[in-house]
Design goal:
The chain has helices spanning about 10-15, 20-25, 40-55, 125-155, 160-175; strands at about 30, 55-60, 65-70, 80, 90-95, 100-110, 115-120. By secondary structure, the chain is an alpha+beta fold.
């Protein structure tokens, strides 16, 4: 079965030329958007709990783009770092957005629940997804060739000679005159 590709053919060009990506690639103000109806202290607790569980919601304040980030947690995780800077958590999250492999990178102040973040082009993930895309395209082409070969095998041969002989027989019948 053909799988729909997850990425566009030239991810880097799209990342560099697409207006949304260009805006999100600049470091800009970000804010935690979860539980906005709750008191600030509860939001702080829920933010930290969510980050430790491996997820959070962030928004780019300059254009209102909201993202649900999945974070790898655990002993050797480089995606969540509470130790790098006191009072802040540094985050990284890799995902595919609009057909391009990207990495969300930034930090959030644990008191104010805002900070600075940006999107970066994820070269390693893009190379892996490109390889997968090329494999899927080759599989699709092979299946298409196989299908076309089967179609040719089942077709009834219609040559111009057979068609001509059949037409000639009808013509002879039409020329018979009864007296």
């Amino acid at each position: 079965m053909f799988k729909m590709p997850r990425v566009v053919p030239d991810q880097k060009t799209k990342f560099e030329s697409d207006e949304l990506f260009r805006r999100l690639a600049r470091e800009t103000e970000v804010r935690y958007t979860g539980y906005r109806d709750r008191p600030l202290e509860e939001r702080r607790q829920r933010f930290q709990a969510g980050v430790r569980e491996g997820h959070t919601e962030m928004a780019f304040m300059t254009n209102g783009t909201n993202m649900y980030l999945q974070l790898a947690t655990g002993f050797n995780s480089k995606e969540v770092d509470f130790e790098k800077e006191p009072g802040k958590v540094h985050l990284r999250s890799c995902f595919i957005m609009n057909g391009v492999c990207v990495r969300w990178r930034g930090y959030v102040d644990l008191e104010r629940l805002d900070g600075v973040g940006c999107l970066e082009y994820d070269e390693e993930a893009a190379a892996e997804e490109d390889r997968f895309l090329r494999e899927e395209i080759e599989k699709y082409k092979a299946r298409l060739r196989e299908f076309e070969e089967k179609q040719r095998a089942f077709r009834v041969p219609t040559t111009s000679h057979a068609h001509h002989a059949h037409s000639h027989a009808h013509a002879e019948q039409a020329n018979i005159q009864v007296r």
